Amino acid sequence: MSDASFETMNGHKLLPHYQTTAYYDILAWLDTIPLSRSVRNLDADFGDGILVAEIIAYFFPEYVDLDMFIIARNMSQRTKNWRILNSDVLPKLSLHAPGTVVHDITNGDNRAVELFLLHLREKIEEHLIRTGRKSRLQWETWRSFNVERYRLPQLLMTPRTPRRMGHLPN
């Protein structure tokens, strides 16, 4: 299966292995956040920007006025929601979604939402640490828990043999 073509099984996309790791990591993260609707398909569910606003509001309620967002039934409403995110909300996290990214997300293009959510999660974590709401240790603990719980691949490391002072290994 090539990177460009995706087969489906029971309505779910089959992604190459390196992509499934990030995909399931994002789903696990989203599972910890109370959202107004369940996430079944990243590409479709995040197209209108409302769930992105809810994620940010969960961590930083003072940054988002959820009443500004409308349930999008067409492309212009989706684009309007993303315009609000880009102008009023994302800059508070030092984040901007370029027009091409917004276009890909609103059109449900493959992996655009997944990549954006990975970046959003990183910015949220950085901002939580910068504002003193979360320590780096808590993030590492969450990541360790997440890796163990969902059995994400880890780097294989060879054990190091202790070196004696002044001696290099042979």
TrEMBL record:
InterPro entries: CH_2, CH_dom, CH_dom_sf, Spermatogenesis_Ciliary_MAP
Pfam families hit by this protein: CH_2
A biological process from GO: regulation of cytoskeleton organization
Record Gene3D superfamilies: Calponin-like domain
Occurrences of domain Calponin-homology (CH) (ranges): 20-125
Any one GO molecular-function label of the UniProt entry: microtubule binding
Recorded GO CC terms: axoneme
Protein's name according to its UniProt entry: Calponin-homology (CH) domain-containing protein
Organism encoding this protein: Rotaria sordida
